[in-house]
Amino acid sequence: MLYIVGLGPGDPDLISRRGFELLSLPNSQVVLRTGKHQVATLLSASGLLFATYDYLYDSLPDFEQVYAAIVADIARRYRHSDVVYAVPGNPMVAESTVQELLAMGARHGWEIKVILSPSSLEAVFAALGIDPTKGVAIGDALDRSISIDPSLSWLLTQVHSRLVAGDLKLRLLQIYPPEHRVAVVRDAGSVACQVIRLPLAELDHREFTSVDTVYVPACREARHIGRAMEELAQVMNHLRGQDGCPWDKEQTHLSLRPFLIEEAYEVLAALEGDDKAELAKELGDLLLQVVFHAQIARENGDFDLFDCITELVAKLVRRHPHVFGDSKATTAHQVEEGWRRIKQAEKATQGEGYLDSIPMNLPALQLAYKFQARAGQLGLDWPSIAGVIAKVDEEIAELRQAIHENDPQLIAGELGDLLFSLVNLSRFLEVEPETALRGSIYKFRQRCARVIQMAASLGMVTNECSLAELDSLWDEAKSKENTKRYNR
Hints:
Layout: E1 2-6, H1 17-23, E2 29-32, H2 38-45, E3 51-52, H3 54-59, H4 63-78, E4 83-87, H5 96-108, E5 112-115, H6 120-128, E6 136-140, E7 153-157, H7 162-173, E8 181-186, E9 194-199, E10 212-216, H8 225-239, H9 246-250, H10 257-272, H11 276-300, H12 305-318, H13 321-324, H14 332-349, H15 364-377, H16 385-405, H17 408-428, H18 433-457, H19 467-479
Parallel strand pairs: 1-4, 1-5, 2-3, 2-4, 6-7
Antiparallel strand pairs: 7-10, 8-9, 8-10
Helix pairs in contact: 4-5, 8-11, 10-11, 15-17, 16-17, 18-19
């Protein structure tokens, strides 16, 4: 039989009676994971024999190798006779050697009995005077994959050194304000128990040992994307609820269409104006449209914000196999090619044509650009820019002929063909046409405003100026212009 005994958090009075009886059995193999425990001191004072694995902590480079060596030795001992293996606290709480022994025992049919005692966590709760059922999460400070939710209080174990405390502090400061009060509980469950309360920013200003646990209370002022998104969804749910806003409650997917387009263009304007504060605000307004539509869909039983987010995460992982999988891509071009192949395969399995997935309600310039790019990926493209320029020249000649014939319908068609060819030219030049045109509009607006200002300073009114006077003002405004570049 393999007995796995919990020694409790420290005070010998907290170990179970059955556990102490097993440790006291004569002629048994008693092994403690560590002798640095008050129960071990009591056993020694009582003349009871036991071994410890403390020597492994001094001879092996990391905990993973220490734990592997402990499990291997327990397995060796078990093959010869019964073993009593004792660990601090509760064997079922934060004891990786115990979990590995239980898994090994299940595979090989071992007889294992676990004798429970209180863990150090219960002692920490008592030292802090808190009830864990009110929202306390427990995590390993060495586990960098845990996601901290600041709406809960946290107990973080394994803060066994000042180095670990410093790393933990830096991670927590990404979420919590520096002045947020935390607590360090040392020697919980023993007469030497201490509770040190201090600001998070000072967490690593003291030495740490293996008997320390860090407590981080919940914090409403914390910066946490998940919590902020949840609060936004709750606000929108309230606005659409019984006691909400009459205007918000009346909106539908279709009624919100103009606002979605408007907010997208206001984001573009903030980008072009290089205004960081305005960009943050406008991106928030655009996010509101996403949350608004998701709320309406949830009320209709179609989907909700969770579905939007999880579908997006799955798509990003699926379409980046060079990051999350085994594929290789070292250039942006290779990434784009891989993205195109994955997307084309997805559309094929969904029964969609490769061109059918492009939304037809995009702005015309952007729609033309996307269609031409998609057709080019299918091989329907000019081999070089020379062919594109020749096509532009051809379309200009056809537009001139249509104007000469004074046929309005033909003029509109040829003008559309010319614009379509110019979009294709912009693609070959790697200039996004929507952005390029908006840049020209911005320059035109600024130049017009400057002409009006200069005319006024000269006592002139623009609509009363001659063409020569306006040309002169225009050229002067252009010469003073600080040209702004618009990139993709």
